[in-house]
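User: I'm designing a mutation panel for YneQ and want to avoid disrupting the core. Could you give me a predicted structure to guide residue selection? Please restate the sequence first so the numbering is unambiguous.

Assistant: Good idea. Sequence first, for numbering, then the predicted structure tokens:
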Amino acid sequence: MAFGIKRSELTQWKEAVSRGEIAFLTHFWLEPRFPGITTVTKVGCADLDRLAAWCQANGLNPNYIHRREPFPHFDLIGPKQIEILKKERLWDQLERFRLL
């Protein structure tokens, strides 16, 4: 279950993904399989080769890309999520979702 984002933020993410950009969308998330995890960052890109290269450049296994057309994405959670949000300088997402 996703919550804590505005429809306009989701729309902007979808548009960027569709253009083949690497796009980030963080939201609150509750998933029983991951106790203690309360947020996820979806890193999306319609260009699967570009997304796979991004994953590899960040030490992530591209086999875990969710190949859901038209918005393929990789889910970042836990310490790696925070590490990459810092690396990408997405301070607004880190602060808003209390990840700092």
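For picking mutation sites, this is relevant: DSSP finds four helices and four strands in the chain. Residues 2-95 form one domain.
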